[in-house]
Structures are given as C-alpha cells and as structure tokens.
Specification:
Elements: E1 11-12, E2 16-18, E3 26-28, E4 37-38, E5 56-61, E6 66-68, E7 75-81, E8 86-96, E9 103-111, E10 117-121, E11 123-129, E12 132-139, E13 146-156, H1 157-164, H2 176-179, H3 181-184, E14 189-198
Parallel strand pairs: 6-14
Antiparallel strand pairs: 1-4, 2-3, 5-7, 7-10, 8-9, 8-13, 11-12, 13-14
C-alpha cells in the first residue's frame, strides 16, 4: 500500500487557499509582513528504519528564518552518523508553498563515523508565468515573496533495494519522482526548515 506523508509543517495564518478542487493549490491575498506566522521545526533526529536515533545527527541551519526579496541568503545542512558503515543516499528537496512539485538533489555515499557531510543550501526560484512553471536552483537570493521549504532525508541503499527492487545507483534527481523513494521507503533520518520571504 502506498504511504502518504504530509511533510510541510509550517502553519501560516491569513492565507486563502484556492484551486483545491483541481488539485492545484494557489495562494492568494498573502501579506507576509502582516500575517502571523508560526514555524514548527521537525525534530533534527527522526528514525523510520530501525537504526537507533542516537546514531544520527542531521540539521538545517540558516542565520534567520525570515528574509526580504533580494536579500542575500545562505544556509547549510550537516549530517553525522555514529554507527556501523552503510551505503546510503542523501536526498535534498526544495518546495515553495502553493506549488505541487518538489525538486531534488541526491548524494550517494558510504556513511561511517569518520565521515561527516556539510553541504551549502542556496535560494531557488519557483514561479509560474505565461511560459509555464520556472525553476532555478543555486541563487544568491529569493526573487519573489513566499514560503520556501528545504528538506534533507537520509535513506539506506539496502532499504531502497529491498522495498522497491531497484539498484541504489538508479536514484538521482530525475528519477526520484518516478521511482517513488519518498512515497514507499522510510528515511533513516529526516529534517526540514521553512524560510519566509517578504517584499
């Protein structure tokens, strides 16, 4: 049975959601500076794969939670594992509230106590115009107001191969949505952070 996960945990007051009947949620009437915003963080350690939580340390770090359009943004995530070595995949995901699709980056590696990960996070563009949906990563700043989510999940290659029957080397940014890793496989560790961007 397919599992569904609602991973977006930012609670935003004063937003009128439209277009739900068509499956495309649009955001209207957002006043980012006036609307009260409560951001809830997912715990930095979360384990769905049977390995004790205390063996993982994963977090997303930004100097602050709210930025203005055009303001320089810089952040990073880090990951440390303290158990026996295993082959796995780190999946970075980005999402803007009001847009259905997530965009992914992947990093396959051997996790071990003597190897840690620290990876830069940058702003991204996700908008829609007469030419369709536009996405661009690796920007210095956000160009439109909105709510932007960064996520980091860590998966075991053994779990991916056992559950989905695919080789771990087939997991990449383009195949994530087709193979269904996030729908069917529990991550060993997971965290996310929402950044608010105002005018």
């Amino acid at each position: 049975m397919k599992k569904t996960k609602n991973r977006f945990v930012g609670k935003v007051a004063g937003i009128v959601m439209a277009g739900l009947a068509s499956g495309n949620a649009g955001c209207y009437g957002i006043d980012l500076l006036a609307s009260p915003v409560e951001i809830q963080s997912v715990p930095d350690q979360w384990n769905g794969g049977g390995i004790p939580e205390e063996l993982f340390s994963v977090g997303i770090h930004t100097p602050k939670n709210a930025y203005s359009v055009g303001e320089k943004f810089d952040g990073f995530y880090d990951f440390k594992f303290y158990g026996e070595p295993f082959e796995g995949v780190i999946v970075e995901s980005t999402l803007r509230l009001g847009f259905e699709n997530e965009y992914y980056g992947t990093l396959r590696m051997t996790f071990s106590p003597d190897r840690s990960v620290s990876q830069r996070l940058q702003a991204f563009v996700l908008s829609e115009d007469e030419w369709g949906r536009q996405y661009a990563c690796c920007e210095d700043s956000f160009v439109e107001p909105g709510f932007y989510r960064f996520g980091v999940d860590v998966y075991s290659c053994a779990d991916i191969e056992r559950v989905l029957g695919v080789d771990c080397s087939d997991i990449n940014s383009r195949s994530m949505g087709e193979i269904g890793v996030r729908e069917y496989v529990d991550p060993l560790a997971s965290t996310e952070k929402v950044v608010v961007v105002g005018d």
